[in-house]
Amino acid sequence: MKAQHHSGGHGRAPERATARYRPAMFDPQHALLSKRFAAAAAALSANPADPAPWSEVAAALEPTRATEPELARIVDARDAAALAALVAEWHAGTRLLPEQDRGVLHSALKAFKKSLKLTRLDDESRIGGGAMSSGRKSGIVGIRPPDRFAREVWDELVRTGRLKGGRDNIYEMPPTPPAGDR
Question: Would you call 72 exposed, middle or buried from its count of C-beta atoms within 10 A (0-12, 13-18, 19+)?
Fold first, then answer.
């Protein structure tokens, strides 16, 4: 007896179950808590009864719950209006980002500067300056940022003016004002 293959009905391919988008696991050392909260606020504005955004931000907040009591209060109360207001204040720059985010942004900028410096040094050390010359200045002004940080981190640094660019995933330091203008 020959086994029959069932394809889900009348010769059609089996239907695929649609999976709901699940954001990647939150990494508190390389991603921004504020962006996770902003995504939750957007999801809650579309569907206030959905419990999934609250579960996701609660899980993301867990490692820093003790240092962010206001965020913990908003999540515990499931106060969508307070969450939306807080996200708007972060975006407008009228409120400091969570301490965890400030640390991630600082670490990312430090890693970017170090990577840029090493890339420039590598470029300057290439053969071609001549034995008696004092070398040459690197023409590199922008680089690809370190991969260990999420794209949202680099976008936030651009938004706040601490980096320039983002086109073709190349970023650069903004110009520094002359010494008299500081």
Answer: middle
Question: Which amino acid, 124?
Answer: E
Which residue carries 């003790």 as its tokens? 66
Domains of the chain, residue spans:
33-92, 101-126+138-181
Q: Is 120 helix (H, G, I), strand (E, B) or coil?
A: helix
Q: Which residues contact 37 (CB under 8 A, 6 or more apart)?
A: 57, 60, 71, 83, 86, 87, 90
Classify 171 as helix, strand or coil. strand
Long-range contacts of 114-119 (CB under 8 A, 24+ apart): 115/143, 115/145, 115/146, 116/140, 116/143, 116/172, 116/173, 119/143
Give the full edge-to-edge strand order of the sheet including 171-172.
142-143, 171-172, 164-165
Full-prediction pTM beyond 0.85? no
**Amino acid identity, position 102:** R
| pLDDT tens-place string over residues 109-132 | 999 999 999 998 888 887 665 555
Q: What is the pLDDT of residues 29-86, one digit of tens each?
A: 788 999 999 999 999 999 989 999 999 999 999 988 999 999 999 999 999 999 999 9
Mutual orientation of helices 69-77 and 52-61 as an angle, nearest 10°? 160
Q: How many CB atoms lie within 10 A of CB 84?
A: 18
